[in-house]
Structures are given as C-alpha cells and as structure tokens.
Amino acid sequence: ELQQKVEETEVLKMELQMLETERVRLSLVEEKLLDVLQLLQQLRDLNISKRALGKILLSTLESCRDPQPGKAQLFEVLDTLQQELAACELLHQQPLEQAQSPRSLANPLVISC
After folding, report:
1. pLDDT tens digits, residue range 32-64?
2. Distance CA 101, CA 13 (A)
3. Can you give the residue ranges of every domain in the chain?
4. Entry's InterPro entries (predicted)?
C-alpha cells in the first residue's frame, strides 16, 4: 500500500510538472500575442493599407511554412509576425502632424532626434 502511494505521488508530481510547463508556454504565447496586437493597433492608427498588411502576413506565413524542429509552430508564427510588424517602416517614420506640432516648436532649445 505504501509503494502504491509513492507511485501515485510520483505520477502526480509528473502531471504537475507537465501542467506548469504548459502554463509557462501559454504565458509566453499570450505575451507574444499581446505584442502582435499592440503593433497591429499602432499600424492601424498610422492607416497602414490592407495590401501592405496582407503582404506582411503572407510573408510571415511563407517564412513559417516549414516549422523548425523543437519550436512550437504557433509560437514561431507569432514571433515571426511580431518581428515583421516591428520592422514595418511606418512604425519608424515620424508622422507629419507630430513633426509640425506647435508644442515641438514652442521651445527652440529642444532638439528632436
């Protein structure tokens, strides 16, 4: 009976470890998904064209066609999409209205980069 309890305890420990591993994996996927959604929101605010966004998505899917061994395909797609969106030129350009805002011209000693 004691041996059976020990075996049950070991099984429960393994299940707990598997659940913890899955929780961490899901947490990483959630963080990456939030990053992607934030980048999409920024691009929407910058009025990115549907065509440009479609090209980014197709490029991402093309690069993830053959999953890399040892890497979860979902996470790989999200990671690649996040990198593609972050590299989008629109995110790195200063909008015209910000460059000409009265606030930025109010203090001539402030130098903007």
Report:
1. 999 999 999 999 888 888 899 999 999 998 888
2. 60
3. 1-64
4. CCD48
